[in-house]
Amino acid sequence: MPYSGPLAVPLQALSWLGNQGTRAIVAVLLAAIAVPPLGELLRPYVTEAIFLLLCISFMRVDVAMLRAHLRRPLLVLSATAWTTIAVPLLVGMLTRVTGVEAGTPDLHLALMLQATASPMMASPALAALMGLDATLVLITLVTSTALVPLTAPFFAYVFLGQTLALSPATLGLKLAGILAGAGVVATLIRLAFGLAAVRRHRAPIDGFNICILFVFASAIMAHVLADLVATPLRMLGLAVLAFAVFFLLLGTTMLLFRRCGRERAMALGMMVSLRNMGLMLAATEGAIPGTTWLYFAMSQFPIHLAPQLLRPFAERLRKPPSTVDGDQDLVSPARK
What are phi and psi of 105, to 5 degrees? Predict the structure, then answer.
């Protein structure tokens, strides 16, 4: 939409950026790697960046649509139980059986923080960009995120012990505080401006979201280039592991939920494989070992590249658009 007044230029610039879709997500990753000094400068603001991303996501939640989907709760409850309970339990058992827990505790910490995290708040938007069922992703995202302050401390106690600098109780309180604070801020914004205004200014909000994502990506990717030059085999190994975990979660979820339809199964698979590791970073205030940081950095590659890599596959799976419960109005329409 056209803008006028003193904020017209920045709003138009944000709108242009927001309309770039998956291209902007890839560009954010490349720019973050290319300018390491900027990452060092922005690293102290990771917690604030994650908080703003959460606020934007909560601000866009359509409560009426969530209520409509809760009338058919079985699929949502199953997907919530899978992503919040089964995934961290299976990952924890796998790292224990394979010796990762005892042999490489920093990597074990990274995998467990990834597994116990809720899905990324951007999952519904990414699902929409790929033409998948964003409504199902959103409702499952909300329910699983609400449970994380309870489930994450439990699995931290069972599988991490003293590996994590925070106590499980402190981790749960910090997660609850961050999520509750973001929810309150988002609610106040919606009360002040209305959901219609949020939808009307979708493009500049998307652009602002990408800017905040750049802050997070720059901070977490600050040392990637230097470490890639210094220890290329180590970095390659972490990257391969990050992609393996991503596709393992994606494929297993699609297999488990195949009976609900291939398109919905892939939407849930994308949600489960895109873990909100930034939330765990914010909760731990970045107090994690170097290898854990590097694994988190390598995990950004499948996260940022997935929409581009998997979009052709999603197009082959996609069914004709459904008009049940007004699904198509939930989030931004797919944009290339």
Answer: -60, -30
Residue type, 75: L
For the chain, the first-to-last Cα distance in angstroms comes to 18
8 A C-beta contact, residue 133 and residue 267? yes
**Which pTM does this prediction carry?**
0.74
Q: What is the CATH number of the domain that holds 147?
A: 1.20.1530.20
Task: Please give the distance of CA 43 from its chain centroid, rounded to a whole number.
Answer: 18
Q: Residues 58-68: pLDDT tens digits?
A: 787 767 766 76
Q: How many residues make up the chain in this entry?
A: 336
* Domain that includes residue 200, residue range: 20-315
CB contact set of 78 (below 8 Å; sequence gap of 6+): 257
Domains contained in the chain, number: 1
Cα–Cα dist 293/304, whole Å: 17
Distance from C-alpha of 243 to C-alpha of 250, rounded to nearest angstrom? 10
Are the C-beta atoms of 22 and 209 separated by less than 8 Å? no
Specify the DSSP class assigned to residue 84. I
